[in-house]
Amino acid sequence: MAGDNGIDSEDMYAILQVPRKASPDEIKTSYKKLALQYHPDKNPDNEEAREHFTLIARAYEILSDPEKKHIYDLQGTPDENAAALFHEFSKEDMKMTAMGVLFIARTVGAPMHFAIPSKVLIEANDISNHVSERKVETLSSAETPGILKTNEGNFFYVHCGQEDLDKGFIIHAQSPIRDSFKLILFNDQGEIYISKDSQKVSSKTRAALFFLPHLTHEVMDAKCIVEGNDKLSSFDKLGFYQRNGLSIQPGKHLICIVNENFLMGATVNISMRAYDDIDKNLRDKITKVEKELDDKKKEIQSVKEIMMKEKDDKILKDFSLETDLLLCLRKKIINKLLNNISTEKSNQSYKDELKNMETSQQADEASTQSTNSSQESNDMNIL
């Protein structure tokens, strides 16, 4: 669908004015140029420029993220169903009431994907370029609770040295009341480097960034793609699990939690956890399952052409079963690890609260004793 400026608002490559085979550097360069051109600060009172800036940010969020770009590219041309994967409401949709949009989306079962608000992107850029007066808290191993307004974000700094990177760490965000949010890591220029959407797990929603000292794969939720397709092959399923090629350097990094709730605020807790602190048994299981996943991908790829040519149902079924079991096991281990983090964080928070209460009580007792001593001294002086 073409926008007011003649550009197809559902073609991410057209929005960024790059060919479909553009390199990451070409995508980044074009994004910088267009973001500067349509930046709201350079186009005050220009609603069209602001809307296009949001489109540019949305396109860059998808094309700069290897896993999202991979999914988008797999879906074919924008005229097919790729745009549905990253659906966003049109101007006509937004003329309806918020409740009406939410009701329609839920009724038809449409996945609700939100672009990152332009004010969050502007703030990230300002913080990174040291022109923002906003105070940014440093993330620690203690769980930091946060309440976010609609379409707003909380920023944090992550400090990591080479030793932290060598040992590995996990950034874990979680909403105990199943609020929808994004977890974003920015680069030094305040541009999106990694963006993770929260996923529903039991009675909560969570998102995590893994920087581990061994082979890992990007955790990719392909539900919106495979919905209604029960016959997705082993090749396609494993195609959504890519080797994690993302890395960061020692230093200070900016992250943000963005509220995606359509009508209300969000409660999201976040922390940074050293991988060494995780139960060794769980760490060993993750290492093993990640290697098995990599081996299975290589094995399937090596015989894919033969299997597709011979159409041997038995071999296909065997591979499908093995793949399903492996992915199911991987998901369980990851969830157990994150549950382990949540439980230990809750216990630590409880211990910290008790410690604070004891410290406060001791301070009160000391204050009372001091007051009593002072009173006794005054009484003696009177006598």
Automatic annotation (TrEMBL):
Region of interest called Disordered, as start-end residue ranges on this chain: 349-383
Record-linked InterPro entries: DnaJ_domain, DnaJ_domain_CS, J_dom_sf, Plant_DnaJ_domain
Top-rank taxon: Eukaryota
SMART domains listed in its UniProt record: DnaJ
Keywords of the record: Coiled coil
Domain annotation J: ranges: 11-76
Comp. bias regions, Low complexity: 365-383
Coiled coil (UniProt feature): 279-313
Protein name per UniProt: Chaperone protein dnaJ 15
Species of the source: Caligus rogercresseyi
